[in-house]
């Protein structure tokens, strides 16, 4: 079976993004909370706490 050479590898891209963010947040954990808050504002998401669970709606 012959495989085509991919022009775009989405899995590799997501791994790279995840690794970059992990490094960034490991150096400064407060940045993670700041980034998440910005995403919540951008997409108008609200966080609800319910019995030790965090629900994003």
General description of the model:
This protein is an alpha+beta fold and 57 residues long. Helices cover 56% and strands 14% of the residues. It has helices spanning 10-27, 29-42, and strands at residues 47-50, 53-56. A two-stranded antiparallel sheet has the order 1-2. Helix 1 crosses helix 2 (29-42). The chain is elongated and about 50 Å long. The termini are far apart. 0% of the residues are buried.
Percentage beta strand: 5-15%
Global structural class: alpha+beta
Strand order of the largest sheet: 1-2
Proportion in helices? 55-70%
The rounded distance between the terminal residues' Cα atoms is 45 Å
Point out poorly predicted stretches: none
- Number of DSSP E strands: 2
Notable features of this structure?
single chain, 57 residues, alpha+beta, two-stranded antiparallel sheet, 2 helices, 56% helix, elongated
Summarize the topology.
Blueprint: H1 10-27, H2 29-42, E1 47-50, E2 53-56
Antiparallel strand pairs: 1-2
Compact summary:
With 57 residues, this protein is α+β, with helices and mostly antiparallel strands. The chain is built from two helices and two strands; from the N terminus they run H-H-E-E.
